[in-house]
Recover the amino acids of this structure.
């Protein structure tokens, strides 16, 4: 998840500001001191600790790399590999392994000319249309071939088929976070994609689905399930010792010798092992601990910095998770936050849908149907961003009400960063008016 679908952990107070350093007298001195402090700890680019960095080796994933490579290897001989489903909890290296195998393929001398990889992250895609559009645009070689918005779904499908045949040969379509696509829009598009080989003329399609929901195939149409499930690979969570090995590799690459105190790596690994064995979490903790140390103008990263980093990360994860929602889900969450602020408490789902439609109108968007919004509400609840309760209204029956579990002040601006929502951005200072559940230390967790 990306932090996108990390389980949200217990709330934490906003981190205390870093102690003010002795103030430099001029802006240029300020920059001198900031630059100096950053070179004390790091010898390599700090990007090495970021999620997007793909290290040259992935300790404890040798088996999975071999298994993925074995399934896809026929493509190197111009044959069609079996479809593949990769399962495993968040941060278990699924995306990294597939990326690494893909890179390795492209380095092979025997790589056939007619082998095309397309990777799509379904996590931030709203509709079957936008998924097909993304696939088509990845294949389009000329500006004219790109798929605009506003076509019928049939026309987009025909165009994608044409673009695939135009490439010819083997196409390996990697659908990362495939479970989120199915949760949002059902398995109709997967059905279409999984039977495309009966319609394609000069191309052949292999599907690689990646999911962190281990049970997601249970709800698939039986035909889709059996086509996708030709091969399956499970990624187990990392244990604390394995996470230590992963962190030590990165620490060697990025930090100067001797700046990491004993116990720092172990503590990051232990925290992340408790969070489902998530390597992303372990790396983020180490990166934040280093940033905390820099802010303290410390020459070493200590266990205390890891403890501070842990609190900070919990808040960051929530905000990051909101940033990576699909646009309509962001509009929905924005409507919830607005209504929650106005009501100073729980909001009925009907009122939320009305608020969402009003916001869509303001933003020039076509509102999604109430059913899709209900799916999005469940998704937001699964992410821990909201909580639904059933309230009994005596004779009026029972209604479903929504409570907010995120800090409004940080979340609203993060949502408004989406260009589609930009006109909703409010001047600074107007965001926080009430305590949310998140802010309330007495809230039931
Ligand atoms: N064995 C490993 N060695 C080094 N780094 C790793 C390893 N496994 C994962 N990572 C790193 O941890 C982070 C998370 O890994 P990745 O994105 O592959 O997880 P994922 O299983 O796809 O998670 P999600 O289900 O949330 O998408 C990435 O930065 C990745 O480089
Ligand atoms: Mg992934």
């Amino acid at each position: 998840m990306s932090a996108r679908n990390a389980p949200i952990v217990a709330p934490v107070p906003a981190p205390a500001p870093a102690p003010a350093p002795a103030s430099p007298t001029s802006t240029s001195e300020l920059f001198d001191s900031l630059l100096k402090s950053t070179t004390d700890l790091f010898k390599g680019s700090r990007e090495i600790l970021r999620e997007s960095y793909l290290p040259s080796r992935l300790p404890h994933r040798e088996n999975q790399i071999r298994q993925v490579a074995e399934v896809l290897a026929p493509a190197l001989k111009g044959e069609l590999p079996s479809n593949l489903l990769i399962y495993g909890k968040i941060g278990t290296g699924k995306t990294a392994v597939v990326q690494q195998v893909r890179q390795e393929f492209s380095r092979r001398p025997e790589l056939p000319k007619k082998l095309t990889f397309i990777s799509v992250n379904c996590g931030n895609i709203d509709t079957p249309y936008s998924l097909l559009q993304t696939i088509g645009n990845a294949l389009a070689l000329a500006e004219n071939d790109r798929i605009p918005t506003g076509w019928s779904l049939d026309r987009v499908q025909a165009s994608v088929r044409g673009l695939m045949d135009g490439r010819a040969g083997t196409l390996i379509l990697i659908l990362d976070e495939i479970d989120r696509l199915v949760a949002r829009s059902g398995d109709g598009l997967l059905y279409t994609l999984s039977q495309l080989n009966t319609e394609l003329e000069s191309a052949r399609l292999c599907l690689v689905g990646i999911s962190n929901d281990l049970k997601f195939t249970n709800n698939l149409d039986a035909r889709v399930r059996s086509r996708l499930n030709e091969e399956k690979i499970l990624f187990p969570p990392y244990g604390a010792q394995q996470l230590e090995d992963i962190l030590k590799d990165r620490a060697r690459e990025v930090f100067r010798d001797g700046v990491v105190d004993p116990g720092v790596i172990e503590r990051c690994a232990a925290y992340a092992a408790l969070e489902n064995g998530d390597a992303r979490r372990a790396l983020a903790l180490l990166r934040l601990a280093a940033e905390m140390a820099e802010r303290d103008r410390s020459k070493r990263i200590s266990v205390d910095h890891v403890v501070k980093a842990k609190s900070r990360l919990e808040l960051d994860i929530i905000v990051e998770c909101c940033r990576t929602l699909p646009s309509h889900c962001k509009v929905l969450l924005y409507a919830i936050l607005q209504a929650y602020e106005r009501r100073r408490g729980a909001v009925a789902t009907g009122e939320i849908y009305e608020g969402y439609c009003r916001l869509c109108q303001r933003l020039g968007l076509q509102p999604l149907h109430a059913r899709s919004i209900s799916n999005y509400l469940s998704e937001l609840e699964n992410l821990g961003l909201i909580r639904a309760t059933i309230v009994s209204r005596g004779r009026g029956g029972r209604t479903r009400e929504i409570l907010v579990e995120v800090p409004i002040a940080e979340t609203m601006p993060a949502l408004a960063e989406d260009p589609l929502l930009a006109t909703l951005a409010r001047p600074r200072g107007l965001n926080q008016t009430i305590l949310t559940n998140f802010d309330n230390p007495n809230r039931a967790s």
Summary: DSSP finds 16 helices and eight strands in the chain. The longest strand covers residues 203-211. The longest helix spans residues 303-323.
